[in-house]
Amino acid sequence: MPHSFGKLAFTPAVKQLQEQHGSRRQYERMESQGVPQDKLTSMEIDFLQQRDSFYWATTGSNGWPYLQHRGGPKGFLKVIDDHTLAFADFSGNKQYISTGNLQTDDRVALIFVDYPRQARLKILGHARAVEGDEAREWITRTKDTHYPARIDRVFVIQIEAYDWNCPQHITPRYTEQEIQKTMEPIRIQIQKLESENESLREEIARLRSK
Ligand SMILES: Cc1cc2nc3c(=O)[nH]c(=O)nc-3n(C[C@H](O)[C@H](O)[C@H](O)COP(=O)(O)O)c2cc1C
């Protein structure tokens, strides 16, 4: 069923605060007239396929929220279709907090951040851990052949709603690979200058020795 993000996130207490601080009317419009925000467009799909990490939250049977970081090679989170995501659960510390939490509450919240572009996307959905025989097909769909991690299970997420955040307070950060790419022309220039310098030193030494 299509939901706007606000329909799920704006609880009575949230709405009351929006009312109190003058933003309720704007968000009411977003809830009633906004795009459904449950089907990814090419913009969200491109964004998700470029990510190498995200954070996701589950809730324990005791009501405590739990946040975990997930990382992998760029694009390890697979967009199966416009409302389904999947990613491989790599072997880890054997705490199984996220996996256990999903047994009693399948609702999840995810946040994806592109630090260089200062963009972030929040997703709400239902997740299930696929294991055993059923996992084989899903492992094939989510495995990155060049990444050596062992896969224990696959998480499949049905998206209920998503929302983009503003870029405020996101400090641009770059991965080693991104820095290397940016620095490549400078590295080549330094190499060229070093080589020129070396030739000039040799030339000076040769002239001095005459
Ligand atoms: C050897 C090893 C030790 C780890 N230790 C931790 C840890 O202390 N804390 C943590 O949050 N994640 C740790 N991780 C990563 C988690 O095991 C991994 O994210 C796991 O999937 C978490 O699952 P859960 O959220 O279901 O508990 C470790 C991974 C490995 C391989």
UniProtKB/TrEMBL annotation:
Keyword annotations: Coiled coil
InterPro entries reported in the protein's UniProt record: Pyridox_Oxase_N, Split_barrel_FMN-bd
One Pfam short name: PNPOx_N
Pyridoxamine 5'-phosphate oxidase N-terminal domain span: 46-151
Coiled coil: 183-210
Highest taxon above the source species: Bacteria
Name of this protein: Pyridoxamine 5'-phosphate oxidase-related FMN-binding protein
Organism: Terriglobus saanensis (strain ATCC BAA-1853 / DSM 23119 / SP1PR4)
